[in-house]
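Team,

Forwarding the record for the chain on the shared tracking sheet. I've put the sequence and predicted structure together so nobody has to dig through attachments.
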Amino acid sequence: MQVKGLFIVLFVSANAPAFAQTAACDAEAFKAVMAKASTAISGLQEANAKAVQGKLQTLRSLHNWSDEVYPAKATPFVKDETTTAIDAANRDLLVKVQSFDANKAASEDGRCAMLGEFRLAMDEVVKNTAAKWRHMVAKLDAATSSVMQAGMGE
């Protein structure tokens, strides 16, 4: 994602060299939006990855999954129709950002409009990423609860 965001920053910089660095919608503003989104996504990864791995290991233990079957049994908890749809939505948002009209970068109003669209797209990517983590955690919690209520594994 950082590479795609950097593309936008370079795109705006290359197509609007005449605007002042202090302008409200300059390359630094685009970099700031990208940095904020990257930081948020990294924070979500840091906050959730260990928890998801731990929950997967708990299910593995409860079900006595061998090394051979574990990947197949664990995959549906982290990759399903919902996560695939979220990933597709994020890809679509990033493609949209990459297809911004270069002519808009020639004016301050155009750059500000692009910045607004960029900010909305990146905010949506962050929201989608958070939703994906919530979905995976909820799915794992439900599966663990189900096994615990049943009082047995496989």
